[in-house]
Amino acid sequence: MAGGWTPDGAVQDQIDDTIADAVMIARARMPAGEGETHCAECGEQIPEGRRRAVRGVRTCVECQSARDARQVNPGINRRGSKDSQLR
Fold first, then answer.
1. Enclosing H/E stretch for 23
2. Using an 8 Å Cβ cutoff, are 57 and 46 in contact?
3. Of 19, 22, 87, 31, which is closest to residue 56 (Cα–Cα)?
4. For residue range 44-74, what is the model confidence (pLDDT) as tens digits?
5. Are 24 and 13 contacting, i.e. CB atoms less than 8 angstroms apart?
6. Helix (H, G, I), strand (E, B) or coil at 28
7. pTM of the complete model
8. In terms of Cα–Cα distance, which of 55, 15, 50, 61 is closest to 34?
9. How many CB atoms lie within 10 A of CB 82?
C-alpha cells in the first residue's frame, strides 16, 4: 500500500537499490589481475593455495582479516522517493 505521493512498491525499490549498491561496492573491492607472492603489508609469503583460490590476492590471511575488520558500513541509501525524504 502506498502512502502520500509514493507509488506502490516504493519501499521495496529502495531496499533493492540499497542491496544493488552494496553488491557493486563489494565487487569493486574484489582484487583482480595478477596476484602477489608476498603480502603487500607485512611481507610474509602468501601460500600457494590462497593465491590459487583468490584471484589477484595482495595480502596474507592475517592482514586481510585485519583490513576486513576495519571496513565501514556503506551507509543509507539516499535515493528514496521525495516523500520519504520529507519525513
1. helix 10-29
2. yes
3. 31
4. 999 999 998 888 899 999 999 998 888 666 6
5. no
6. helix
7. 0.49
8. 55
9. 9
User: What is the Cα 44 distance to its own chain's centre?
Assistant: 26
* Amino acid identity for residue 63 in this structure: C
The residue length of the chain stands at 87
Please report which confidence band the pLDDT of residue 85 belongs to, taking 50, 70 and 90 as the band edges. low
- Per residue in 9-58, pLDDT (tens digit) is 788 888 999 999 999 998 888 877 888 999 999 999 999 999 988 888 99
Cell matching residue 24: 557493486
For residue 75, is it left (φ>0), alpha (ψ between -120 and 50) or beta?
left
Kindly report the three-state secondary structure assignment for every residue of 42-68: CCCECCHHHHHHCCCCCCCHHHHHHHH
Closest listed residue to residue 29, CA positions, set 75, 64, 53, 77: 64
